Amino acid sequence: MFTVYVLYSSGFNKIYIGYTSDLQQRLLSHNVLAKKGWTVKFRPWSLIHAECFSQKAEAMLIINEYQKTEPTGLTSLRSFADLSCCCTLLASVFLAWPLSVLISPPRAHMLLGFILKSSL
After folding, report:
1. Residues near 93 by Cβ (< 8 Å), separated by ≥ 6?
2. In 3-state terms, the chain is what percent helix, strand and coil (to 5)?
3. Where residue 81 falls among pLDDT bands split at 50, 70, 90?
4. Is 31 helix (H, G, I), strand (E, B) or coil?
5. CA 64 to CA 66: how far, in whole Å?
6. If you ran DSSP here, which 8-state letter would residue 39 be given?
7. pLDDT band at 76, cuts 50/70/90?
8. Which end of the chain, C or N, has fewer beta carbons within 10 A?
């Protein structure tokens, strides 16, 4: 299983989009373990979105779609990230739940909708 994830750095107003087969380890790498690379300069990162896919090719297609919609896609992601309480809550929820709970993107979108309603 592969997860496409979107990170937001509120201190620098930066967005990072990536994919991984181990989301918890990858988030740890972005925020703590990595010693070099682009994301190291903009710590800390908050998880603002994640979608799970069974195939790597599917995950890569989604990343390409996000990048094609730039800058409007990234602007809308930044607008979402401005709800800072959502960033923290969403990150804690995704880290606390086993990824098997979030196998399908509709479940992730339902969770995002719930968090947005709860934070307003």
Report:
1. 111, 115
2. 60, 20, 20
3. low
4. helix
5. 5
6. G
7. low
8. C
The predicted model scores a pTM of 0.63
CA 110 – CA 36 distance, rounded (Å): 35
CA 5 to chain CA centroid, Å, is 3
d(CA 96, CA 78): 24
Residue 14: is its pLDDT beyond 60?
yes
Scan for tokens 């968090």, then name that residue.
115
Element at 48 (helix H, strand E): strand 46-53
The stretch 53-65 carries a mean pLDDT of 90
pLDDT of residue 82: 53
C-alpha R_g of the chain: 13
User: Side-chain half-sphere of 87: how many Cα atoms within 13 Å?
Assistant: 20
Q: Which residues of 46-76 are buried (b: 16+ CB within 10 A; e: fewer)?
A: bbbbbbbbeeeeebeebeeebeeeeeebbee
Cβ-proximal residues to 31 (8 Å cutoff; 6+ apart), any chain: 43, 44, 45
Packing angle, helices 72-81 and 84-96, rounded to 10? 90
